[in-house]
Design goal:
The complex is a heterodimer of chains A (297) and B (269). Chain A is built from 15 helices and no strands. Chain A is mainly α. In chain A, helix 7 packs across helix 9. Chain B is mainly alpha-helical and 269 residues long. Chain B folds into two domains: 53 residues, no CATH class; 206 residues, MetI-like (MetI-like fold, Orthogonal Bundle), CATH 1.10.3720.10. Chain B: It is a multi-pass membrane protein.
Chain lengths: 297, 269
């Protein structure tokens, strides 16, 4: 078949013209999208990054401010603390889900997968609104806890970091379940059986055999969630408080309220560099990276 | 035994089942809650509601602002779908069939809008549109949405193109069709599931987009999520629950259509 295709191409494009055009075969079809992204995505992005070192005066003063100003560095700390905490909790909650889906691919495993997908596909704003109502002082969760006598006073679970962590964890769970489940279903059950035949207790088998085998899925899922959490705006902005901002909210506030493009751009540059660096690590962890699968035919 | 439900000890099995039931409830709770609230009669979102009513739905559908923002959302989402598909189609063809230097790098470039945090794309494009006085226009909405929808259409079309055996297209050429005829009559119908799925993704991305839209919106022109956002910041009225329920219903519908298409594509092999 390949030979046939080559002859076809040979007859279609003949002679000398082929040699020159062959090097860039198909490339012109990229132009429309390339021009579009260049004009509306890359150019503004580069422009934004430049503002970080050019405004108000050329130099690195914006970056210095970002780390020196205690209010700003608190934002950085919050961002990483929340992202780390969200990653950890969603990992703990996603693990049993992925496990059950792998164990029972039909039946209730399938139902669980359906619930995970439904939650992932439901409007972000709708879910965040729901948490806002659920978590408020007069909300259902506080009422139930008070009715059972667990607490006397309503807990403050919204407009602070608690609210942000709950809402973000909720959103991130599916993004760990899916890669983790893929890793688990690729594990040969025989390996675990071998572990128990060789005398490993269930606990030992779990921690020394099962968890290590799940590691690729755990790492790639956790990394993805951590990166996404760093850049989320909507949920922290609605469930968080003005006192405990995260980086994305900070960037928007600097632009919209203070027109402080210099600091906003420096913060944006920081966020992009961290995101891309972590994403690079993520790609390296993948046995078959998206870039590689695009090439493989 | 850890990967076989039957060989698992009853205690472990029961434990896993209970833990999962709780987590599943956690995942379902906000979605069910919001749907129920939209029918609850309490203005203050008391739960369980004292009574059931359609009045929030009436308020939603009779309010010109809500309806207009829903209409703007629909218009933006449809335009985004069209442009993202039209731009994505030749790109996917070139990335799969083309042979040129730096192809992997270009693929990475086209997926970049998926990776760069939305808030940064929003601020960057906002700066651009501000400079040329385009903020608060339909153009600004559509352009910014196409940026983030494009990777979805490109990846979706690439996937279906890779499944398609090009020798079928070549066979059509041997039988006398021109290359374009073969692509139009043979390849397009074969990759249609990928095209439609990509279009659905693009629609959903645009329809649900909040961050970009907040930056692009003006008081006179806003999408449904922006209207929800600005209302949310004032009070938590049940009308937002109505809007949320409608968004959820549409997401489920699109998800089902996409799943159906995938199954059909798989059956075809």
């Amino acid at each position: 078949m390949t030979a046939l295709r080559t002859t076809l191409v040979d007859t279609a494009t003949s002679g000398k013209a082929r040699l020159a055009s062959d090097r860039w075969r198909g490339a012109p079809y990229l132009l429309p999208a390339l021009i579009f992204l260049g004009l509306f995505f890359l150019a503004p992005l580069i422009g934004l990054l430049l503002r970080g070192i050019l405004e108000p005066t050329p130099g690195l003063s914006n970056y210095a401010q970002l780390f020196a100003n205690s209010a700003y560095s608190k934002v950085l700390f919050n961002t990483f603390a929340v992202a780390g905490l969200v990653t950890l909790i969603s990992l703990l909650l996603a693990f049993p889900l992925a496990w059950a889906i792998t164990l029972v691919p039909r039946g209730w495993g399938r139902a669980l997968l359906g619930i995970v997908l439904l939650s992932m596909w439901t409007s972000l704003l709708a879910r965040t609104y729901s948490w806002l109502v659920l978590l408020q002082a007069s909300g259902v969760i506080n009422k139930v806890l008070m009715a059972f006598g667990v607490i006397d006073q309503p807990l403050e679970m919204v407009h602070n970091l608690t609210g942000v962590v709950i809402g973000m964890t909720y959103i991130m769970i599916p993004f760990i379940v899916l890669p983790l489940q893929a890793t688990m279903s690729a594990i040969d059950p025989m390996v675990l059986q071998a572990g128990s035949i060789c005398g490993a207790s269930p606990w030992r088998n779990f921690f020394r055999v099962f968890i290590p085998l799940c590691r690729p899925g755990i790492f790639s899922g956790a990394l993805m969630v951590f990166v996404m959490s760093l850049g989320y705006y909507v949920t922290p902005a609605l469930l968080g408080g003005a006192q405990n901002m995260m980086l994305p909210e900070f960037i928007v506030q600097q632009v919209q309220s203070f027109l402080n493009w210099g600091v906003a751009s420096a913060a944006a540059a920081l966020l992009i560099v961290i995101t891309l660096a972590l994403f690079y690590v993520y790609l390296k962890l993948q046995p078959e990276s998206p870039a590689a699968s695009a090439t493989a035919r | 035994m850890l990967l076989s439900a039957n060989a698992m000890g009853p205690r472990l099995r029961f434990g896993l089942f209970t833990v999962n039931a709780v987590i599943a409830a956690f995942l379902l709770l906000p979605i069910l809650f919001i749907v129920l609230l939209s029918f609850g009669s309490s203005q203050w979102l008391v739960f369980p509601p004292p009574g059931w009513t359609f009045k929030w739905y009436e308020q939603f559908f009779s309010n010109a602002q809500w309806m207009q923002s829903a209409f703007v959302s629909l218009k933006v989402a449809l335009l985004t779908t069209v442009f993202a598909t039209v731009l994505g189609l030749p790109t996917a063809f070139a990335l799969v069939r083309g042979k040129f230097p730096g192809r992997d790098l270009l693929y990475a470039l086209f997926t970049l809008p998926m990776i760069v945090p939305l808030v940064i794309i929003a601020v960057a494009t906002y700066a651009l549109f501000l400079k040329f006085g385009y903020t608060g226009t339909l153009t600004a909405f559509v352009i910014s949405h196409v940026i983030v929808a494009l990777p979805f259409t490109i990846i979706s079309i690439i996937n279906s193109l890779k499944l398609f055996d090009q020798s079928i297209e070549d066979a059509a050429v041997i039988c006398g069709a021109s290359r374009w005829q073969a692509i139009l009559k043979v390849t397009f119908p074969a990759i249609r599931p990928g095209l439609v799925a990509g279009g659905l993704f693009a629609f959903l991305v645009s329809w649900d987009e909040v961050v970009l839209s907040i930056m692009m919106a003006s008081p006179g022109l806003q999408t449904l999520p922006v209207k929800m956002w600005t209302t949310l910041r004032q009070d938590l009225t049940p009308v937002i629950a109505v809007a949320s329920t409608l968004l959820i219903a549409l997401s489920i519908l699109i998800m089902l259509v996409a799943a159906l298409l995938r199954r059909r594509a798989e059956l075809k092999g």
